[in-house]
Specification:
This protein is α+β, with helices and mostly antiparallel strands. It has 9 helices and 10 strands.
């Protein structure tokens, strides 16, 4: 299920992301709206946030933080995203490739120190997410595969039959579940999309940090499945 983007305390972006010849820019669909990005890594990060059911709101380029540069001049730093979670936690995110962190550390370090201070003063946290955290497992590719299935119309009869069959079987695989639920190949094929929709909406569970295939272990409980 997608998330509605809420206005974080009626905040607006501190700056607008425009087009660029040197980087990838665009917008990611997110809860019926869209959030801008200015790198492929930011795009992938937003895709993960959209799939995270604990995320309540996201604001790109949320505010400008003032800090003093090495030469004593006043400088400004605008973080990439402010994310609010259903727990009430607010996290300021900077999205950077590890190579950029290494190459630009002298410039970035005072910015990040200022962001840490700002976060502490305002009851937030500051963290840096790199390609290791964002792309370091099968989770991103699984999320990309599952996201479109959330928009499929529910098929109540098929959904309930798959869930009840899975409860009886216990932990199994998509291939085995379809075979147990339907005798005919045509009915199994019709049930593939509903099955992945149930995974995408967390009514059927799987370890999404491992490659998602027809042989992936899946499971559910009657409470989760019919909830």
């Amino acid at each position: 299920m997608g998330h509605e983007i809420i206005e974080l305390d009626s905040m607006r972006p501190a700056r607008t992301i425009g087009t660029s010849r040197r980087s990838i820019t665009g917008r990611v669909a997110f809860g019926g709206r869209s959030i801008p990005f200015e790198s492929a890594l930011e795009r992938d990060f937003l895709v993960l946030l959209d799939f995270d059911e604990t995320v309540e709101g996201v604001l790109a380029q949320p505010f400008r933080i003032t800090y003093q540069g090495a030469e004593g001049r006043q400088r400004y730093y605008t973080p990439d995203f402010l994310v609010e979670y259903e727990s009430g936690d607010r996290v300021i995110y900077e999205i950077k490739y590890r190579s950029n962190l290494k190459d630009e550390w002298a410039t970035l370090k005072p910015r990040f120190r200022a962001a840490i201070r700002y976060a502490k003063q305002n009851g937030m946290r500051f963290t840096i997410a790199t390609e290791v955290e964002i792309r370091g497992s099968s989770y991103l590719s699984n999320v990309r595969f599952l996201r479109p299935y959330r928009d499929y119309a529910p098929t109540r009869t098929i959904d309930e039959h798959l869930i009840k069959t899975l409860v009886v079987l216990g932990e199994t695989t998509p291939e085995s579940l379809l075979a147990a639920a339907y005798w005919s190949l045509d009915n199994r094929i019709k049930a593939v999309a509903p099955l992945w929709r149930l995974v995408a909406t967390r009514r059927i569970h799987a370890d999404l940090y491992e490659p998602l295939t027809m042989a992936t272990p899946i499971w559910t409980t009657l409470e989760d499945g019919l909830g």
